[in-house]
Amino acid sequence: MKLKKEYWEMYRAAYQHTELSENQKNRIIDIYMRDGKDVIYEAAKIKKLVPAISCLMCELEVDLDFWKPIADDYRKRNLRIISCLDEMYSVLNRNGVKHIAVVENFGALLSSTQDLAMFGSGDLDEYALPEERDKIYSILKKNGYSIDEVKAGEIIVSSSIRRDDFPEGFYFSINWDVTNRLNLPSFSANGDFIGWDKCRYYKDTEIRLPSPEGLMYVCLMHIAVHGFCKAPDIRLYYDIANAAEQGLDWNVLVNWAERDGNSVKISMAAYLSHKLLGVEIPKFVFEIGNQKQFQRLLQVVYEPIDNRLHDFPPAKDRFFIDVYSNDDGVVNGIKEIVLPNNRWIKARYGSVFLGHIKHCIRLIR
Fold this sequence. Notes:
By secondary structure, the protein is α+β, with helices and mostly antiparallel strands. It has 17 helices and nine strands.
């Protein structure tokens, strides 16, 4: 199914925090009446936006018999997820685990006043200090949780946590780095990026959320690891709108980005959040890092005429997205993709020499 550019009007409206104008409502309803419920639903499925489109159609009072049960089911499921998550955090807190928090889309949603029905993923993401991994594993196993590690060679990318009382097929994913990638080194930090001494709790639960700055940093980096325009694209920018809702110190994020060599990634994700969803972000955040790289990257991921992202970028574009995201320029960007450091190569492939060959073959494929 070929997605229509004009659907971006609908996608942006589904995620913007501000009230829809009458013109927006009329344009979206016109598109809906022209193409029909089934086409709109299939487009939402392809883009992984069904919960948001369901909530949007409920707001517009369009085909409520179809869309409202979908939104209600997601809301009901997500309340159950919160209950399961609260129980797990209660167990961990009682046993002295303090360095684990909910991040990315579910963390951003919980930190906001938005409708819980907007979350439709099959898992939620957490970040925990690697130093507490063994302790977390031991406590969870004693309390009936199963743990499956997702590995890239010897590298533990993440740990999937399940228990019988979770919603069917759902799991908690604990990440052990800022972001995780299977076939390239993760984007790592050179210091604290959570703000453990400023963590918050969701309402009257024991669910821990990072500091506002920590949550925003992870959400911005999550956009970068998805290449800014790869699915679920627009949904990731909603996380920025949610994370920004309570206010934060952007200077802290800029300092972290410069410390970690992530300035282009942070500035691009912030800029696109502002353009697509109108998130209020200080202009100086867009101006950090290598501006030549920023402009090259912008051309690959964003279409300014239609105010949209490029849908499903081809392999060539995905390669250059990583290259142009590098703070140190094109040459260093290519080098880091084609010739990652030997320590990562050995951990990923088991051998330095053969590992570099396997890595190049994987890139070509």
